[in-house]
Write a structure and sequence with these properties.
The chain has 377 residues and is α/β, with parallel strands linked by helices. Helix content is 39%, strand content 17%. It has three domains: 167 residues, P-loop containing nucleotide triphosphate hydrolases (Rossmann fold), CATH 3.40.50; 46 residues; 101 residues, Arc Repressor Mutant, subunit A (Orthogonal Bundle).
């Protein structure tokens, strides 16, 4: 919601510039009422000394469920239904009934297409807005907009195709909110459902709550170098001389809210210590390890399967830097170009060798991937 407010206002979001121009922000949610959304937005505006009326014309809410289905699929189903109605009409001997069915063919086709997903008429209206109308579309949440099962790769692929199609048609960014699974033992969270949901987006943002109430935000970019993780904190602005804890629940609900950038908090699920990382370097002392490989091995040790599953970088990097400063691991170059570390003082260059991780990750293909193929380069 804070990002939507900033884009609609043309203001910085957590210190990052936004590009709004004269276009609006569309917030689609099937989980919240207009009253609840208005209350949240009013609190955020009050936290920045803004009036709700200043931003309302540029921030639109839709509280109906809208199933994202590709335009081509809707068109194909409608065309098939139209032709079926026309062919059926030809077989009807009564001229009045035949004419009635032919006249209703368009309505039948539209009805069949709309049956593919909820809110199809609203989706079509959004698509007709054109590229100069909307700057950002927020879908809250994925489960409310995905037609089918999010564990099905077919349904997930169809949903992501529809989202990308909508972004291109409107020349807008599409932000999809999705819940993560519960963290494995001492490890990372991952997105629920098919890998299509995390493999298709250009940008992935992972928000993790820390011990002190702050939230860390880690970005993964498909075609660019990701920025360093950073944190943010959501806090209520209590009246002077009072603390939020001294107020009643109803009074706290009316307080202005501010979202501010802060240092990366310590993750509740971090559970990574120096000895655990050092043990990995000791085990692979002949090959050395890149940071990416360390993240993958730690993730596998926590029960996360798949060669692409990794512990977040900001959990691991400080440990590696600390071990290097202590001289317990030494920088090296793996395969002639990938920076890594080796156990002890034997640094230098290391020939590229296969590291068997299939047994740990449960992914048989991991045995055939070189260290270079698995690291972030």
């Amino acid at each position: 919601m804070e990002l939507a407010r900033c884009v609609a206002r043309g203001a910085h979001w957590l210190g990052l510039p936004t590009a709004k121009g004269k276009r609006a922000v569309l917030y689609i949610t099937g989980e919240n009422s207009r009253r609840a959304l208005k209350r949240r937005l009013r609190a955020l505006c009050a936290g920045r000394d803004q009036q709700l009326g200043e931003i309302a014309p540029s921030l639109w809410f839709i509280t109906d469920r809208i199933g994202l289905v590709p335009h081509d699929e809707r068109h194909r189903v409608a065309k098939a239904a139209y032709l079926d109605a026309q062919l059926t009409a030809v077989k009807i001997p009564d001229p009045d009934r035949r004419a009635s069915l032919r006249n209703a063919a368009n309505e039948i086709a539209e009805s069949r297409a709309h049956a593919l997903g909820a809110g199809a008429a609203i989706l079509e209206a959004i698509e007709q807005c054109g590229p100069d109308c909307i700057a950002l579309i927020v879908v809250d949440t994925l489960r409310c907009a995905l037609v089918g099962d999010d564990n099905s790769s077919t349904d997930a692929h169809r949903f992501m195709s529809a989202a990308r199609e909508l972004a291109r048609a409107l020349d807008a960014a599409v932000l999809i909110l999705h819940h993560t699974s519960k963290a494995a033992r001492g490890g990372q969270r991952s997105a629920r459902g098919s890998v299509e949901l995390t493999g298709s987006p250009d940008v992935l943002l992972l928000a993790e709550a820390g011990d002190d109430g702050a939230v860390s935000l880690t970005a993964t970019l498909r075609n660019h170098v990701a920025p360093e993780p950073f944190g943010y904190r959501v806090s209520s602005v209590a009246p002077e001389g009072k603390e939020p804890g001294e107020l009643t629940a109803d009074e706290r609900a009316l307080l202005p809210v501010r979202v501010e950038r802060c240092a990366v908090p310590t993750s509740k699920a971090e559970g990574i210590d120096d000895d655990e990382v050092l043990a990995l370097y000791r085990e692979h002392s002949d090959t050395g390890l890149t940071e990416s490989k360390v993240r993958q091995l730690l993730s596998a040790a926590r029960g996360n399967s798949g060669a692409r599953s990794k512990v977040p970088a900001h959990h691991v990097r400080p440990v590696i830097e600390r071990l290097a400063e202590q001289g317990r691991i030494t920088p090296c170059t793996i395969g002639g170009k990938w920076p890594g570390h080796r156990y002890g003082s034997a640094g230098g260059a290391v020939a590229l060798k296969r590291i068997r991780s299939g047994a740990a990750t449960g992914d048989p293909m991991a045995d055939f991937l070189s260290e270079g193929a698995q690291c972030d380069v």
